[in-house]
Amino acid sequence: MAERIGFIGLGNIGRPMAANTLAKCKALTVFDLSADRVRTLTDAGAVAAESVADVAAASDIILLSLPTSAEVETVLIGEQGVASKAAKGTLVIDLTSGSPPRSKDIAARLAERGIHYIDAGVSGGVAGAEAATLGIMIGGSDEDVARAMPYLNAIGKTILHMGPVGAGHMTKSLNNLLLAANMVVASEALALAAKAGLAPDKVVAAINGSSGRSYITEYRFPNFVLKGDYSSRGGMAMSLLVKDVAIACDTAKTNGVTMFVGNLVHQMLMRISDELGPTAPNQSVARAIEDWAGVKIRASNDT
User: Fold this and answer.
1) pTM for the complete prediction?
2) Is 253 known to be catalytic?
3) Which of 18, 80, 85, 93 could serve as 7's disulfide partner, Cβ 3.0–4.6 Å?
């Protein structure tokens, strides 16, 4: 890995992705608004940059992990952004769960300056980021994706090139639409189970041996909901899940696809985000449904 690598955005998922990138590359320039987050990487051998422009000046390939496409646009194209210092031929790998239309626009504007861009939505949460087992959905040219692959292999396991720019972020939004819908319906089903006098953990075990199983019942419920664990380590913030589902629903409208369930899930997520706060982890969907049903979804040995 002879190319110089930079990483911008060291949040809950960005930080472990940057750590795994550093482990593979042995040299990494990083930037985040939080000095404490930067310190966790510099303590491991990374170099801290003073600004995103300084990351660009020191890097041939730049990975971004930011909340939304709005922040991506500011960081890349805003005043004193990456584009102000990046050399022609620089490759940007956008790991944000972004808006496909905005990703396409950003890519086009960067291309005018000779800067390459791919969108690479990631899935697997903090645990996947820490273990370098993320699913990665990529949009971009064959040449740019091939160039990015060594660095994506450092952070992910299931890595698929979905099509041109925008295809990665589109696929990620569809994944999160399904994640959200599964969380809503599974929470309703398990709340009903508890209310009807069944042991939720036994119902989850039965479901996981049957056709109704999903990632939500196999992982989120046993590891978080059944334990009453609604900490941030369980998943992205509600505001980000609301954003991703909105992207899917908006794209469906643009393409003339009716989304009865998708739009209802979006409305429920917005209500839950309003009730529990935008920073609540997304397994808090179950917490809200517990409150509405007046019951706790817990393992039978928990109080």
Assistant:
1) 0.92
2) no
3) 18
